Each structure stands twice: as structure tokens, then as C-alpha cells.
Amino acid sequence: MTSSKRRTGRRSPLATVALLALGLVFTGGAYAAFSTGTAQAEVEATSQQTIEEGKKLFQANCATCHGLDAQGTEAGPSLVGVGAAAVDFQVGTGRMPMQMQGPQAEQKPVQFTDEQTKQLAYYVASLGPGPDIPADHLVNGGGDAANGAELFRINCAMCHNVAGAGGALTEGKYAPALNDVSGVHIYEAMVTGPQNMPVFNDLNITPEDKRDIITYLQYIQDNRSPGGFELGSLGPVSEGLFIWIFGLGTIVAITVWITAKSN
Length: 263
Known about the structure:
- This protein is an all-alpha fold and 263 residues long.
- It has helices at residues 13-61, 63-66, 83-92, 114-125, 145-155, 157-160, 183-192, 207-222, 236-262, and strands at 167-168, 174-175.
- Strands 1-2 form a two-stranded antiparallel ribbon.
């Protein structure tokens, strides 16, 4: 007589655990997909809104010279492809909008807020690819100041002076002083080449080397000359003029005093 197993109708405890685990996996996956899609949609909406706000600001303040679509006019160049970094530098330092035509754009009080400057920058960036605003780790001064000093002397000192004090160029143009310029704007100037400055792309000077140059400039900003009065950090010209005027002037004064005393 063969015996058969009785069917009790009960599920194995392992089957219940497996079903619960499977349900949790599907629920978590669906939630993650929904959250990611929602976050991405929010980012895209925010970016599009930023670009639209920047477009309004551009048409109200910049289109007179650069055209309604930034294609350029006789009064101003095209901005298609200059990137966000160029706009952030020019507008963030007050050079744009220009007050008047001249040899180069003069630095003046900033007209827009930081938020408005970024809106203008992202709008222009949407018109064509170009250098972006640098990341914080490249402009925070955490590089090698010694290497930055050598790179600055080789690539920048002939115009900006070895101490970053600036200098005169031809036809009424000049290289500005760098003693109060932020690391972000120094980096943006290197990658965009404003005014008469050449463009130093990543093949000329790597991002790490640019960070070192910024570190050097920030070092000399924070550590003034230990020798006393800097005379504008203009080198032997100002030092020679100082000696000529005050040194010889003192000698002449002493000579006159001795002569008057003897008489």
C-alpha cells in the first residue's frame, strides 16, 4: 500500500520572504525612477527659466550693441560661442555694459546682481558652446604658489608686472592691476582673453596651472612687500624716480643749508 503526502495548503515561509523582497525591490525601483525623473525635470525647468530671464535682461540692456539675438552689430561683436565665462567676467567686473566707446572697456561699479549676471551668462551660453564658469576648486587658491609665480613671470608679467600691478600698453590701452581681482575672474580672463589679453586654453596652460597662478596672485595680495613702501610695485622706474627727486632734492637742500650757514 503506497502512502501519498498530504497537502496542507500552507506556503513555505521562504516564499513569503521572497515575495516581500520582490515587492520592496519593485517599489524602490519605481520610486527611484520617479524621483530621478522629477529632479531632472525640475533642473531642466529651472535652467530654461534662467535662460529666459537672461534673454529678457539681454534684450533690455545688451541688444543695442550686440543685436537682439547676440549676432553682433557695427557697435558690438557677436556673442555666439563666447561662453558663460566671458559674460560672467565682463558683466561681473562692471566692464559691460560699456558707458562709452573707447580703447577698451573700463572697469566700473557692477550694474547687475550676481543672480542676474549668471542669468545673462547662461543665456549667452545657450547660443553656442564656449568656456564655462570655472569650478570652485580651481579658483579657491589651493594650488602651488611657487609654480604659479614661475608661470606668471613667463606668461603674464610682461603686461601685468611681476607683482600684478598692471602696466601701460599701446594706443591708450593698458593691462589692469590684479590686486583686487577674484580668482573666478582671473580664471575667466585666462580662458576668454578679454581686451588685449591672449587666450590661454587648456593646451597652453592646464587648469591646474591656472589654479597655481591664481594661488600666487592671492598670496601676494595677502602678503604685502616686507621692504616697506612699495612705490606702486612698478619696479626700477618708480624707484629711480623716487631717488632722483627725494635723494638729490635732499642733497641740494643740505648744500643750500651749509652754504647759508657758512655765510
